[in-house]
Amino acid sequence: MITLVDDAEIAFDDIGAGLPVVFLHAFPLNRTMWEPQIGALVAECRCIPVDFRGFGESAASPPFTMDRYADDVAAVLDSLQIERAVVVGLSMGGYAAFAMLRRHRERIRALVLADTRAPADTPEVVARRRSLIETARTQGGTAVANLQIAGLMGKSTRDKRPDVYDAMHRMMAQAPVEGIVGALEAMITRPDSTPLLPTIDIPTLVIAGDEDVITPPKEARKLSDAIDGSRLEVLRHAGHLSNVERPAAFNTVVSEFLGSLLYN
Length: 264
Ligand code: MLT
Known about the structure:
Elements: E1 2-5, E2 8-11, E3 20-24, H1 35-41, E4 46-50, H2 66-79, E5 85-90, H3 92-104, E6 108-114, H4 123-139, H5 141-152, H6 155-160, H7 162-173, H8 177-188, E7 204-209, H9 217-226, E8 231-235, H10 242-245, H11 247-260
Parallel strand pairs: 3-4, 3-5, 5-6, 6-7, 7-8
Antiparallel strand pairs: 1-2
Helix pairs in contact: 1-11, 2-3, 4-5, 4-8, 5-7
Bound molecules: D-malate.
């Protein structure tokens, strides 16, 4: 499905019934990275994976900022007449979830923060992103995918699941250069979300892969410690893309969390 936000097409799916759950993807992927979750969770909730502008089937229309991503998600909820949804964000999707907390807090029923971090980029990370922007502009999306893929997958997946590795590489390589550059700029300019954490007063689940080298479990522990009452789940043999690397384990913890919301 498509909704128009200031003339930009924002693509999403709306599958299933019941509690609305929005899924926000990682960089430089798209909403189809959530297929293993949608297939399993559609029986128990209304699944709404969204493509950030510049990825998947969403238009590569500026401006590219985390705030704009958050506003686009709120516009998708408006178009579906959904007041509040559970927001599941993985990595960059988590950064957008923090932007939603800043701008559209009343739309969030509960949060799942997977393989993500609250602090803004360090100068070293900014320099790495600037170099990746140059790579994207001069060599295209496949070159970016080649550079990114190894860090996104845990060792267990790299060693034992070439199918998953290849599928994620293909998905990343399809990302348009405008979307890649826009997302890198959006990540560089995003604010520190650490001060937001103690203000989170909705049910929150933090998920980490124990082989994640981009946001290691100790980062997830910090995140969880700073959010009062949140629950932390560390998935074994999963790297940064824990939802595709250990889908059954990821789905189990999310499903239990969604079930717990009935009593919250
Ligand atoms: C992601 O998976 O979305 C990226 O690793 C986020 C980042 O580069 O900070």
